[in-house]
Design brief:
The chain is of the alpha/beta class. It has 14 helices and 6 strands.
Length: 314
């Protein structure tokens, strides 16, 4: 593919519970696309049910990329995602097919489309020190500490977002510069245009009902047993990035004896709704996207029309 003839890259995003995967598979029936996952939980091996990872039968029909990349005890960053996504896109296009990026991890999507800051490499010792302090004081207190050194970062990071608070404090500890300052000096690593279709429900009550039903279905499919297997490994903790994923951390708390199963499920559903709200807030600030209501009978048609230019013949 000549650089000046490359089509834009198609992106299908939206909050959790809006049927992105189903929409993507319908597109794959019409066009020669391969799906590139934009999901921070699906990169981990062993996080299958709770991440809604496509099963083997689905992957046999439509090729998926960026699934099961690392073990559950690994740290996987937005920077690594950008590198892996770029490799996957190049591979797909080299074989004459089209990449379709699908998922709702907005940090990953923002890093790929808008660029990512040149941040210092992770320091295991500094992270360990931060985790020790967090266990003693709690993450809201660590968020207050972050606000003292980087008010801009603290303003956009939730006080319970342990992973992002940890990274922001780590970056400041390593180089003495706020992560927000470094992030302002960004440039896209992939010089391509993107067509973004966002599945955003007009009816929030319908979304909340879908979220609750989806988690109930995951529990019926064996999510608790999946988390129990991870818990039994012995090398994972509540602060491990994979275990911080919504649904996993709440059931982990139940297995640790901190709450009943009913309470864990209720907290997981509430956390999923909060995640969906944050995703929609981020999407409202994203320019040049095509918003489609996934619960409307014409929702798929709208998404298809928004992305079809990315699947043009070269």
């Amino acid at each position: 593919m000549a650089a000046d003839r490359k089509p834009p890259i198609a992106v299908l995003t939206g909050p959790t519970g809006t049927g992105k995967s189903d929409f993507a598979l319908r597109l794959a029936r019409e066009f020669p696309v391969e799906i590139v996952s934009v999901d921070s939980a699906q990169v981990y091996r062993g996080l299958d049910i709770g991440s809604a990872k496509p099963d083997a039968a689905t992957r046999a029909v439509v090729r998926h990329h960026l699934l099961d990349l690392v073990d559950a005890n690994a740290v996987y960053s937005a920077g690594q995602f950008v590198r892996d996504a770029m490799d996957a896109i190049a591979d797909i296009e080299a074989r004459g097919r089209f990449p379709l990026l699908v998922g709702g991890t907005m940090l990953y999507l923002r890093a790929l489309i808008g660029g990512i800051a040149s941040l210092p490499r992770a320091s295991e010792q500094i992270r360990a020190d931060i985790d020790v302090e967090a266990r003693r004081l709690g993450w809201p207190a660590m968020h207050t500490r972050l606000a003292a050194v980087d008010a801009a970062a603290a303003a956009r990071i939730h006080p319970n977002d342990a992973q992002r608070i940890q990274r922001a404090l780590e970056v400041h500890a390593i180089g003495g510069r706020p992560i927000s300052e470094l992030q302002r000096a960004t440039a896209p690593m992939l010089a391509r245009n993107f067509l973004v279709a966002a599945l955003v429900p007009a009816d929030r009550a319908a979304l909340h009902a879908r979220v609750a039903q989806r988690f109930e279905d995951m529990m019926a499919a064996g999510l608790l047993e999946e988390v129990r297997t991870l818990y039994a490994r012995g090398d994972l903790t509540p602060d491990t990035p994979a275990i911080r994923a919504v649904g996993y951390r709440q059931l982990w708390s139940h297995l640790a004896g901190e709450c009943s199963l009913d309470a864990a499920v209720e907290r997981a559903v509430a956390a999923t709704r909060q995640l969906a709200k944050r995703q929609m807030t981020w999407l409202r600030s994203m320019p040049n996207i095509h918003v489609v209501d996934p619960y409307d009978v014409q929702g798929f048609v709208g998404a298809r029309e928004s992305l079809i230019a990315a699947f043009c013949l070269l």
